[in-house]
Design goal:
Largest sheet: 8 strands, mixed
Oligomer: single chain
CATH class of the largest domain: Alpha Beta
Order of helices and strands: EHHEEHEEHEHHEEEEEEEEEEEEE
Helix content: 10-25%
CATH topology of the largest domain: Alpha-Beta Plaits
Number of helices: 6
């Protein structure tokens, strides 16, 4: 019998080179590989200087672990400063990196790390822009008070593949990053009613996602050949509901205003009310209606 190690507290960091795909297209494989490899070596050195451990390289990114959130944020700041330093050998290459950090428990086994905290950190990298450091809620909460003064809340966001929304923060490592917040973000106000036949769902902060598809494991299962097994999702991001199509045939949306929109492997903001038609225009519709609580 395989003995599974007990989950342990850990902070996980993903650092990804922004725009590496374009770099390969413009510079060619050999030059681009040399530049990205040199950049990853810089990132790995900064992980070590912040008492972290590089788990592995993942394409043009690195995955690293730290004993605490402070160390992970310290490493991220060191990375970005090292790349923009006037003395940095890669400064003329204008390489930019984006970072996602999450804290929680994970299984550490054979030098690798496994768990939801890894997935959250990876999703945050996808949300971050060049030279940005994004933190999940538990990472923010675990920071020393003086570091939390350098953090601003982005929003409660529904991350792909997760059932619950995640509080996402940005760590402001440059003074000029500070932006004055106009007004106060409204919380827990967005709600969307979704109906399919006798089924009625209410999406809000407590339930930020609903799945649609032919597979019976979906919240709304539609037994139609034109409907993909995992066809689409309705997700709450911030105070907006998005229809995210993941299908072969696409999805039609007919709004209450009479506009018909087709999306395929795209996202669409759902406003007020209307009908969602997965797979083809003649399928039994999924009705949606927005409300403010």
């Amino acid at each position: 019998m395989t003995v599974v190690p007990e989950p342990a507290p850990v902070t996980v960091l993903f650092a990804d080179i922004s725009g590496s795909t374009l770099l390969y297209a413009l510079r060619g494989d050999e030059q681009a590989f040399a530049v990205t490899s040199a950049c990853l070596a810089v990132l790995e050195a900064e992980v070590a200087s912040a008492s972290g451990r590089v788990v592995k390289r993942v394409g043009d990114a690195i995955l690293a672990v730290f004993p605490a959130p402070d160390a992970g944020v310290d490493a991220a700041v060191r990375m970005l400063r090292a790349l923009e330093s006037a003395a940095a050998p890669l400064r003329d290459e204008r390489i930019h990196v984006r970072v996602g950090i999450a804290s929680g428990t994970a299984v550490l086994d054979a030098g690798d790390v496994y768990g939801d905290v890894v997935n959250v950190a990876a999703r945050l990298v996808g949300l971050a822009g060049p030279d940005e450091i994004f933190l999940a809620g538990e990472c923010h909460d675990g920071l020393a008070p003086e570091l939390r003064t350098q953090v601003r809340l982005i929003d409660q966001l529904a991350l792909r593949g997760r059932p619950d929304a995640v509080a996402v923060y940005q760590y402001l490592w440059k003074d000029e990053e500070t932006t004055v917040m106009v007004g106060e973000r409204r919380r827990d106000a967005a709600a969307l009613e979704v109906r399919y036949g006798a089924q009625v769902f209410t999406l809000d902060r407590n339930r930020p996602k609903l799945t649609i598809g032919r597979d019976q494991e979906n919240d709304i299962a539609i037994a139609e050949e034109a409907v993909s097994r995992h066809h689409a999702e309705v997700v709450l991001r911030g105070d907006k509901f998005l229809l995210v199509d993941r299908s072969t045939n696409g999805t039609w949306v007919v709004t209450d205003a009479g506009e018909t929109i087709r999306i395929c492997r795209e996202e669409l903001t759902l406003i007020r009310g209307g009908r969602i038609l997965p797979g083809r225009e003649t399928v039994t519709p999924v009705h949606y209606r927005g409300a403010q609580r």
